[in-house]
Structure formats: C-alpha cells, structure tokens
Description:
The protein folds into 2 domains: 4-45; 63-140. The chain contains 4 helices and 3 strands. It is mainly α.
Amino acid sequence: MEPEWLTYAEVADRLGVTPEAARSRAKRLGWRRQTGNDGRALVLVALEPRPPGDPPMTPRSPPGRNQVHAQIARLEGELAGVREALVEARARATVAESRLAAADSERAKAIGAFANLANRLDALAAESVQRRPWWRRLAG
C-alpha cells in the first residue's frame, strides 16, 4: 500500500476510531504531519481503505448526569444488600459461637463425670479386694 496524506477524520474512518484517537495514534507513532491548503492537518500514512458496509464508529460520549446518578443509586442498593447480608452473617456467627460454647461446657461436664466414674470404679475394685475372704487374699 502506497503512503498518502489523509486528514485525521479520514484516518479515523479507515481505522474505525474517533478522530481524537487517530490524532493520538499519529502522535504516538510519529507519523509525518503537515498542514493542507485548507488549513487542516494531514498525516502521511499507509492504510487499507475501510471495507464497504463496515459501519462507522460513533464516538463514545461520556455518561450523562442521569446515568451517573442511576449508577450511584444501583451501587448504593447493592451496598445496602451487602450490609444486610453482613448483619445476618454476624448474627449467625454469634449463635454458632454460643452453641459451640454450650457444647464445650457439656463436653467438659461429660469428661468430669467420666473421670468421677473411673475413680469410683477404682475405689470399688479396691474395696472388693479388701472384702474378699482372707484365704483368697493370700492366694493372690
């Protein structure tokens, strides 16, 4: 493709970008620039023509005030939902912690009761040895 002098609008049309994006690209890539007879800037580029039927790109406009407010309202709604979920999660965690503390207390009681039973069994076994007749105690 042979290089040619094009305006930023023509470059933008061929690239499918905005004229400002074409201007930025020309500056970034160091394309040669000169002013045409009509006073408009021209850049020397070698670009393929845009295929027929390829729709032109419409420049993106920044969001309007109403769009920004709608976005803020949507995000605030999401934030409120997250806060509610956090409150519920904290409540569930508190209930779980209290149940765990109760279970630990019951476990400690059960261990204590088991230890008491084991001590009582040892005492009964010792007492049973003492209650055997004296002739059985000699046998061992």
